[in-house]
């Protein structure tokens, strides 16, 4: 049962799932960690990222890197309209943001239904070929997902730790009032953090839609995953989001392969409930 080919497939699937989960959770935890916004519209932005990839890659046949990154950038750029009209009124208003953004999520989802109907669409695969890695046959499209996510995450880490804007973002997350007294334009930092968060969310949505299926309701799963991951890692913790994504991705891949998707979901939610009871601030979070 636990043969090397099967275990290698579990590992590759787990790594690709973890890559998507980390991206979608980072977008969620970035908005919460800096602006204290609980983004219930997170899944809708992931869904829009999937449709952007569908048109740029599936319809207009742009090269895949341009399609996936360009589509995510378009969604992030257009989302600035919603940042101006909706999001900025709920910064540092955690409970109010939950209600308002739940309404925004429903509005975006059913607007997508009106535009694209409820039918599922499939996105063309990057490649149907297999690649031999260390004597194992690995689907090339999974490797593309892993590589794409790894590059974006590395660039995000360099931005946060090596640039003035990234350091200003971390300062604003710790204490926005003190950051403002030090000359940091918190409003501009909030806009920058918002664009980065939505970009990563849309990118994760494109990768997720390509792995499974695309529909106006596909954002429910990424939203649920974002909650699970940030609870595991700790709300507002970027390293925690990375750790939570890895744990959930590999656990889901292993359990769904050998025991079925029902057992995988049961264990995932069971662990989250136990963690909320025993350590409500998460594995790498801080108690408040």
UniProtKB/TrEMBL annotation:
One of its GO terms (molecular function) is transmembrane transporter activity. The chain crosses the membrane at residues 6-33, 40-60, 66-87, 99-116, 143-160, 189-211, 223-250, 257-278. Its main location: membrane. It is a multi-pass membrane protein. GO terms for cellular component: plasma membrane. It is found in: Cell membrane. Keywords: Amino-acid transport, Cell membrane, Membrane, Transmembrane, Transmembrane helix, Transport. The keyword Transport applies. The keyword Transmembrane applies. One of its GO terms (biological process) is amino acid transport. Pfam families: BPD_transp_2. Belongs to the binding-protein-dependent transport system permease family. LivHM subfamily. This is Branched-chain amino acid ABC transporter permease. It comes from Bordetella genomosp. 10.
